[in-house]
Amino acid sequence: MSTKVFVSGATGFIARQTIKLLLSRGYKVVGSVRSSEKGEILKKSYGASFSYEIVEVLERDGAFDEALKKHPDVTIFLHTASPVTPFSTELEKNVLIPAISGTKYVLKSIYEYAPQITRVVVTSSWAAIIPVPDRFNPKFVGSEDIWNPITYEEAKQDSIHAYFGSKTFAEKAAWEFVEKNKPNFDLSTVNPVFVLGPQSKDEEVKDTLNVTAELVNSILKLNPKDEVPTLEGNFVDVRDVALAHVLAFEKEEAKGQRLVLVTERYSGQLVLDIIRKNFPELGDKLPVGVPGSKDGSNFAAPNDKKTRSILGFDRINLEKSVVDAVEQIQRVKA
Ligand code: NAP
């Protein structure tokens, strides 16, 4: 019988690629979504091995109880749901509480109602590692052993701090839960940097994409005289993030580990350079910027040696990630 995996936040960019990969490896998947409309779209897309449960609000004690009771054969839980909103207001209510309480409550539900679950993977972030001001410090080296020292008060000051705080406190809450309750499951976290790459299916390409995937899409929408987006930093492809979620529970060595996922540097200019090189027909429609001028190297550097030795797979590079995303967008818009 196939192993059944629960994926919270099944509509997300990373979750969908993870679900696609899980199904291709023969797992059954139950996803949590916020409405039946969203669930039906996924069901149609992923077929008979996928089912969904509605969990409208993450930040409610017992939110996952019923969903877990209905699936006593789930043995793996991937908690990916969390707010990823750059311009949020009411930061505590909309970002911090859903992320932090959501993580605590989901683990409590698993502990109380799903003792058969043996592995839990929480999608954390590089944001739980790097102090907010050190994002722009090339001498700062982040790794699996480092924690963002942000305080809860600092996290409330703006949406960047709120996101970094939400990921830091949610991940800490997960490790503390395990330490305190000694549940039947082993915990691993996946801590990706900025995630790019294609959607799991062409039909998921919309005018505006998820916050990070939108970088490539937004560059394709530029006119020749527009400014090139100034975003830069470290990147990983979404398909590698999906694979890391799966290996995080398949591999013994990943038990109890934080897994940092990073491939190479990126910037808006580098993405544009890749598009201009690989899609010469778009040349006249896009700005040129200053080719090669920004390589992301003024950003903090990750050291992911430990994760690479645990997970052991080759990463998809920025060029392939961008080309695959652009080809998909072009295909859908043709
Ligand atoms: P995404 O596409 O925005 O997916 C977020 C998912 O979480 C969606 O399923 C969303 O549901 C759900 N969600 C958000 N707020 C919620 C709430 N209050 N209650 C219930 N569900 C909620 O983002 P993503 O990039 O795939 O991110 C997935 C995970 O990866 C997050 O934990 C994020 O912090 C982490 N991560 C992302 C990146 C990145 O660069 N993208 C990097 C590091 C870590 P709806 O679809 O219904 O809104």
UniProtKB/TrEMBL annotation:
Q: Does the keyword DNA-binding apply?
A: no
Any one Pfam family here would be Epimerase
The source's domain of life comes to: Eukaryota
Q: Which InterPro entries match?
A: Epimerase_deHydtase (IPR001509), NAD(P)-bd_dom_sf (IPR036291), NAD(P)_dehydrat-like (IPR050425)
Entry EC no(s): 1.1.1.195
Query: Which keywords has UniProt assigned to this entry?
Result: Oxidoreductase
Q: Which residues form the NAD-dependent epimerase/dehydratase domain?
A: 5-255
Q: Name one GO molecular function term.
A: cinnamyl-alcohol dehydrogenase activity
- Give the family this protein belongs to, as stated in its UniProt record: Belongs to the NAD(P)-dependent epimerase/dehydratase family. Dihydroflavonol-4-reductase subfamily.
What's the protein name? Protein induced by osmotic stress
Species for this entry: Scheffersomyces stipitis (strain ATCC 58785 / CBS 6054 / NBRC 10063 / NRRL Y-11545) (Yeast)
- Lineage, opening ranks: Eukaryota, Fungi, Dikarya, Ascomycota, Saccharomycotina
